[in-house]
Design brief:
Elements: H1 10-39, H2 41-49, H3 54-82, H4 84-87, H5 99-125, H6 129-134
Helix pairs in contact: 1-5, 3-5
Length: 136
């Protein structure tokens, strides 16, 4: 009986963990932004009732998301640069501080964050001002 049949290679294992981390970051950021939109429902309803456009509402939600995502990306970049030597033995085909890899990862996480923030912002656009004003 072969025992190596169920072994997972290190690159595949790192890819699985990377995928799980992207999924967790998406779900976490989506939850934070959905909660923010839910808490600001009355404010958004009042703004829409007073004539705010969808562009204005998206900018309101987007600014808050940009601060959150920007801070997370800066802290993540600083932490990953500080830990390059610790993870260098797990890397194949790239140097620990490869600028292209850092750039691509930042852009991929920015795309995930944009999608995670866009969905609650679209929900904010559908808030009916009358219902938002009546709700406590």
């Amino acid at each position: 009986m072969r025992q190596d049949r169920y072994q997972v290679s290190p690159p595949m294992l790192m890819s699985i963990f990377g995928g799980i981390s992207v999924l967790l970051s998406f779900v976490g950021l989506f939850g934070i932004m959905a909660n923010t939109v839910s808490q600001r429902r009355n404010e958004i309803g009042i703004r829409v009732a007073l004539g705010a456009t969808s562009k204005t509402v998206l900018a309101l939600i987007g600014r808050q998301a940009l601060v959150l995502v920007g801070l997370g990306m800066i802290l993540g970049l600083a932490a990953s640069l500080a830990l390059t030597q610790a993870i260098s033995r797990f890397l194949w085909g790239v140097t620990p501080a490869d600028p292209l890899t850092f750039f691509l990862v930042l852009m991929a996480m920015a795309a995930v964050a944009l999608l995670a923030c866009h969905l609650p912002a679209r929900r904010a656009l559908r808030i009916d001002p009358i219902i938002a004003l009546r709700a406590k």
